[in-house]
Amino acid sequence: MALAVTSSTSIAFSSSNSRTEQGDSSSFQPSDRSFPSSAALNLSRKRSPAVKALNAEPKRNDSIVPAAATVFAPDVVEKAAEVEDIEKLAQDLEKASPLEIMDKALEKYGNDIAIAFSGAEDVALIEYAHLTGRPYRVFSLDTGRLNPETYKFFDTVEKHYGIRIEYMFPDAVEVQALVRTKGLFSFYEDGHQECCRVRKVRPLSRALKGLRAWITGQRKDQSPGTRSEVPVVQVDPAFEGMDGGSGSLVKWNPVANVAGNDIWNFLRTMEVPVNPLHAQGYISIGCEPCTRSVLPGQHEREGRWWWEDAKAKECGLHKGNLKEENGNGSVDGNGSSAASDIFESQNIVNLSRPGIENLLKMEARQDGWMVVLYAPWCKFCQAMEASYIELADKLAGSGVKVGKFRADGDQKAFAQQELQLGTFPTILFFPKHSSRPIKYPSEKRDVDSLMAFINALR
Ligand code: SF4
Question: Residue 138's beta-bridge partner residues?
């Protein structure tokens, strides 16, 4: 099938354009569905489907079709929106393989679904889509700050699968305003949210408004804090689809239950090209200034926004994973500041405000102190409760005392100013001979990790 790109095609395909700092808001369409149906690509398909589509429908075109991102799916999709119970679907598919889940997603949504590709090991999603034999679309957010290796990898993937990735660019005026006001690296000073909002979240939001569903590479094991409950399919909790309004977009996470190692085994077995940054120690890959390689044993999310606290390590693309705190320290949804207390143990000292102020004042103490700044409604605090109690039991009589200080509500401003509170939980160690507490820097809150920290400082 020989096709030609029409001059009216307005999505920018060139990776060289994509590296401009300001982006080009005229170079993409908010919804790629506005492509003329005759728009086509003169692409040779390098690989033919190795596996027949699951649940293949009679209407499906089983011949070799360009699996190009911009090619419309055949008319197998019912345009009338099906009302269905997504939670039930998630339960039904909980034990399904990623290939089955992908096939179901593509079958149901046809041209109204697209894979979000970040340029990392989520290339597995493209391989799964390819294996279904169905047409599929792929989009990617070109923030203008990606590594050169990632841009080259995009090109490799396009050639390998014979597709065009539908790049989404940030709004040039918004990027310009941010950079002219705050400089190129403001995220190191005041957090990554603002830059991510301009360069990622808003372009994503525009892309999703042209879809009914999207496919992500989220896995439960990627972030113990924020992704541990990711279902294989869900009503998107944060973004809207083409019909508008809450509930108008469905999010598919075909590899939610797959371990990182298994993804890599799959990529190797299928000889899928991978981003060369992985060979340099990168696991999670994002923008160049905000991603770094990790050491063996470090969690992959420790390579992202490493100067910030663990809880904030979502760029906004999956912000439904986070529970927002309000200014009073209560939490929307599942918790409230009236929640019953946690870390209840005879070996954990409940510090009052004067108690922790005393600890701060002392130049020399008889014992070192480990103290968690917590809020009982915080699910991350709740998640570490068992290990913290075990730690306190282990340290009883050892010369290190274990305490807790409830730092939400009225105490929050004090804790932020005096105790380095960023997000809950914040863990501090007060060494014997220093008044200055040292903040525990890791997301790992198991007993062994906490003990290693104490043993290094006691
Ligand atoms: Fe900006 Fe960093 Fe977010 Fe990229 S990851 S959009 S550079 S803050």
Answer: 115
Label the pairing between strands 426-430 and 438-439: antiparallel
Q: Nearest CA to 44 among 167, 159, 128, 166?
A: 159
Tell whether ligand 1 has an atom less than 6 A from the beta carbon of residue 406: no
Q: Output the CA angle 227-229-235, nearest 5 degrees.
A: 100
CB of 396 closer than 8 Å to CB of 445: no
Q: Rounding to the nearest 10 degrees, give the CA dihedral for residues 434, 439, 445, 446.
A: -30
Measured in whole angstroms, the distance separating CA 278 from the mean position of its chain's CA atoms is 17
Confidence at 65, pLDDT banded by 50, 70, 90: very low
Cα–Cα nearest to 301, from 384, 230, 378, 218? 218
Residue 212 near residue 250 (C-beta atoms within 8 A) = yes
Task: Give the count of alpha carbons within 13 A of 453, CB side only.
Answer: 22
Contacts of 356 (CB under 8 A, 6+ apart): 371, 403, 405, 419
Inter-axis angle of helices 148-161 and 123-132, to 10 degrees?
A: 10
CA distance linking residue 385 with residue 371, whole number of Å: 13
Which residue has the CA at smallest separation from atom 5 of ligand 1? 287
Beta bridge partners of 251: 214, 234
- CB of 313 closer than 6 angstroms to any ligand 1 atom: no
The answer to whether residue 55 scores a pLDDT higher than 60 is: no
Peptide linkage before 148 cis (omega within 30 of 0): no
Going edge to edge, which strands form the sheet with 233-235?
166-168, 138-141, 113-116, 213-215, 250-252, 233-235
User: What are the two backbone dihedrals, phi and then psi, of residue 234, each rounded to the nearest 5 degrees?
Assistant: -155, 155
- Which is nearest to 457 in space by CA: 440, 355, 143? 440
CA distance readout (Å), 423 to 163, 186, 222, 392, 441 = 42, 20, 19, 22, 12
To the question of pTM greater than 0.90 for the whole model, the response is no
In sequence order, what are the residues at sequence separation of 6 or more whose Cβ sits closer than 8 angstroms to the Cβ of residue 397? none
Ligand 1 mutation pick, 174, 187, 318, max ligand atoms within 8 A of CB = 187
Give tens-digit pLDDT for 261-301: 899 999 999 999 999 999 988 888 899 999 887 766 666 66
